[in-house]
Sequence to fold (232 residues):
Amino acid sequence: MRIRKHGSYSYQLTRLGLMNCYLVEDENSLILVDANLPGSADSILSAARDIGKPIEKILITHAHSDHVGSVDELVKALPNVELIVSERSAAYMRGDFSLPAEDNGSVKESNFPKLSSVPTQIGKPGDKIGPMMMVSSAGHTRDHVSWFDERDQTLYCGDSWQSAGGVAVMGDTRWRFPLPALVTWDKNVSLQSAANTLDLNPQRLCSGHGKVVENAYPIMQAAFERAKRKLG
Ligand SMILES: [Zn+2]
Fold:
C-alpha cells in the first residue's frame, strides 16, 4: 500500500494505484476514513504504527466493497475501535435493503458485502465526530455521506466526487476511469449533493479513487458547472 501525506493531518493509503482510504490525525489518535478492499487491514495497521498513533475511529462514506472491504478484519484487530456510519450504510452492511427511498434512481445499486461488524454509532448529517463533520452526499449510492475536516477544509468525499481520470462530480463520466460513474445510482441526486459539499468551501479533495486535489474549490466549481451542463 502506498502512503502519502497531505497537509498537516491527512495520509492517503492507496492500493492497486486506484483505491484510496485515509488516516487522519486527531490529537492523540487516528481516524480512518473508509477501509479499502478486503485484505488491507495489515497495511492500514502498519501505516498507523509508522505514524505512531492508534486508530480509534473508523468512518465510512458508503458500503461498497472497495470502501468497507477490510472493516471486519480491522474491528477484529482493534476491538475497541468506534465504527461510525450512516443509517443506510449500517443497514446495507447487515444485508438489509428494506429502508424506503424517496427515489428509485436510474441504476440498481449493488456490490454491498454483508459484514459481521456492528457500527458503534449511527451518524446523521451535521454530526461532529472529533474534527470531522458528516455531510449528506447521496447519489453514487443512496447511503453515501462525506466527512469534512473543518481544521483544514479537507473533504473526504468517498465516491461522491472522483479525481481519477479528471476531477468530476460522480455520475459525469470520465472515460479514463468510468467505472464509479457507470454504477452511480442517481446522477441528479449526485449533482445536488455536489452543490451541498461545494457550499463547505473545500480546499483539499480526498476522493476514493484518484489523486488528492489541493486548492480544490475552483477545480470542483468548474467540474460542477460541467456536470450541470451535462446532467442538470
Ligand atoms: Zn463506490
